[in-house]
Design brief:
Layout lengths: L1 E5 L4 H12 L3 E6 L2 H10 L2 E4 L5 H9 L3 E4 L9 H19 L5 E6 L28 H6 L7 E7 L2 E3 L6 H12 L2 E4 L5 E6 H14 L5 E4 L2 E5 H12 L3 E4 L4 H5 L3 H4 L8 H7 L8 H6 L5
Length: 296
């Protein structure tokens, strides 16, 4: 297949490019900078210059492809409304370019808010509905195109897609622990986060593009739930700093924006995904990565 990827030079995207090329697919990656373009070309991918606001580039990339993986997101925590707007516009543009083709569109989504008091599953619908909701309601928007001949598939990534070089949530927690000279968790630390290694996440995207039926909800989850106090303890051990609790009302002050998430349960299962795709995670666990120095 000729696969068009947004976010192709990002953390998950660059691993997905390598995974697809290794499986014999052709990759066209969206690149907004010279550095990103050079990195993609070095991997063996073709470059399409543009960004998420360049809807003409998105339209061309999708129209010329056999499959699309939408892995980019602005993640502008200072202006979430703009992030949501851009995400919704991008997904609508990509999906419209694929109408009537039965070609796959795999889009990145998240696990936040899927269920209360239990791990989220693939049967749980996304609570994000409408342009003002998280990610602009892009998952439900994409899935609405199934009836219009788009093989839309949601890849819900665990809150931490970990590995050496990760600059996401766990890297931010590690930086915060360095700054405060203490590794903290929120409340009693009993809420849990699911996790997946970057290599396993990339393989899931490839399998989704190749095999998943229209309307599939895939969970990129290798570990169902790791208590946040255990994540904090592993960071503390890796840095050689003490571990402590932060009251929920003080989480934003201590952690910054990530305080909105670190006290939130984001555990999830992936049983249906594994059965559907024959996907078996093989990468290191999150705690193995932290203790092995991936973040220090």
């Amino acid at each position: 297949m000729r696969v068009f990827i947004t976010g192709a030079s990002g953390w998950i995207g660059s691993a997905t490019v390598a995974e697809l090329l290794g499986a014999g697919h052709e990759v066209v990656g969206l690149a907004r900078s010279e550095g990103s373009a050079a990195a993609l070309e070095a991997q063996g991918a073709t470059v399409l210059r543009g960004d998420l606001d360049d809807l003409d580039a998105l339209r061309r990339g999708a129209a010329d492809a056999d499959a699309v993986a939408h892995l980019a997101n602005k993640h502008d925590w200072a202006n979430p409304a703009e992030s949501n707007r851009a995400e919704r516009a991008a997904v609508e543009t990509l999906a419209e370019a694929l109408v009537g083709s039965d070609r796959p569109l795999v889009l990145a989504s998240g696990l936040a808010g899927l269920a209360q008091g239990r791990p989220g599953s693939e049967t749980d619908p996304s609570p994000a509905v409408g342009p003002d909701s998280m990610r602009g309601g892009s998952e439900n928007l994409a899935l609405s195109y199934v009836d219009r001949g788009v093989r839309a598939i949601s890849a819900r990534f665990a809150p931490t897609v970990h590995g050496t070089g990760d600059h996401g949530f766990v890297a931010y927690l590690t930086t915060t622990a360095r700054r405060h000279c203490v590794s903290a968790y929120v409340g009693d630390g009993s809420v849990a986060w699911s996790a997946v290694h970057r290599s396993d996440a990339a393989r899931l995207v490839r399998l989704g593009l190749e095999q998943a039926p229209a309307g599939s909800l895939l969970h990129a989850v290798a570990e169902e739930g790791i208590a946040t106090r255990d994540i904090a303890a592993a960071i503390g051990e890796a840095l050689g700093v003490p571990v402590t609790s932060v009251a929920p009302e003080d989480a934003l002050e201590h952690f910054g924006f990530i305080g909105m998430f670190f006290g939130m349960d984001m555990s999830a299962t992936s049983t249906r995904t594994r059965e559907l795709l024959g996907w078996t995670p093989t990468g290191p666990t999150l705690l193995e990565d932290i203790k092995g120095g991936a973040y220090t």
